[in-house]
Design a protein that fits this description.
Elements: E1 2-3, H1 41-54, E2 58-70, E3 76-88, E4 92-99, E5 103-108, E6 112-117, E7 122-127, H2 132-143, H3 157-162, E8 167-176, E9 179-187, E10 191-198, E11 205-212, E12 220-229, E13 248-249
Parallel strand pairs: 7-13
Antiparallel strand pairs: 1-2, 2-3, 2-12, 3-4, 4-5, 5-6, 6-7, 8-9, 9-10, 10-11, 11-12
Length: 271
């Protein structure tokens, strides 16, 4: 099967975690493409969202996500999952993702990341000290652990999302779960993506769609934010992993496959 993610391997790839939380690097504004400097309604709305997110220290999120795949006979299939994110900047993170094919958790306390496969009753621990941004990049580059939508958690969402953008439009308004949102659409050479941002004084992302343009039938990845709390209550225990009885620690090389697709489905269109 071919997935929508193969068209955006470096930036909006699919992996074990959430959504929410595509794995990417934060780019400096000086290195961003010229389009990111353009001041139109779409980029202004996206920048307002980015600034709002960056100013939130403690955030809790619940989400639903769908990933589409296209079979070799051009049948489009969709797989669904749900999850949560709890974050305390700059260096604390807990995330869960539950779907039909895996039940996974991640804990990060600023020093180490623990990834848990609840279905297999195993966990692995990685020494990755640093910030949330550094964790996301190291998981991607060193361990091939990625997560769609992770750019929404970075300290500078705007620069990251605007990389490679060649067109940006504000389409109009939309309503997500009864909330009025600004509907924005962006294009890059490889994918089109859309985002719905809550209108008013709390410009948080409500819906995010990535559409592949290089795969037949244009499969999509869809993230829907059900709840985004900017006043989450956290303490040190919120990000501490305590294995339950019978849970076994394994090396990262022995950790089971825990992505959002059935076993036998791999990236790159090979089954």
């Amino acid at each position: 099967m071919r997935t929508c993610a193969e068209a955006r391997v470096r930036r909006r790839t699919l992996g074990w975690l959430t959504p929410f939380i595509v794995v990417v690097m934060t780019m400096a504004l000086s290195s961003a493409p010229s389009w990111a400097q353009t001041n139109n309604d779409a980029t202004r709305a996206l920048k307002a969202m980015s600034d709002f997110i960056a100013n939130q220290k403690n955030v809790s999120i619940t989400f639903d996500a769908d990933i589409e795949v296209v079979t070799h006979d051009l049948q489009k299939l969709q797989f669904a999952n749900s999850g949560t994110v709890l974050m305390s900047r700059p260096d604390k993170l807990r995330a869960t993702r539950t779907g039909g094919y895996s039940d996974v958790e991640l804990y990060f306390d600023g020093k180490a990341a623990t990834i848990v496969s609840k279905d297999d009753n195993v966990y692995t621990r990685l020494d990755v000290p640093g910030t949330i941004d550094q964790l996301i990049e190291r998981l991607r580059s060193e361990y091939s652990v990625t997560a769609p939508g992770a750019d929404m958690l970075l300290a500078n969402v705007f620069d990251d999302l605007m990389e490679d953008v060649i067109d940006a439009k504000q389409i109009g308004l939309g309503v997500i779960d009864g909330v009025e949102c600004a509907h924005l659409a962006f294009r890059t050479p490889e994918v089109d993506w859309q985002i719905w941002i809550e209108a008013g004084t709390r410009p948080i992302p409500r819906k995010y769609i990535i559409t592949s343009k290089s795969v037949a039938a244009a499969p999509q990845y869809t993230l829907r934010i059900k709840e985004w709390k900017t006043d989450a209550q956290v303490n040190a225990d919120s990000f501490a992993f305590r294995p339950s009885q019978g849970t076994k620690q394994v090396a990262i090389a022995d950790f089971p496959r825990v992505d959002e697709l059935p076993a036998g489905t791999v990236m790159g269109g090979v089954k």
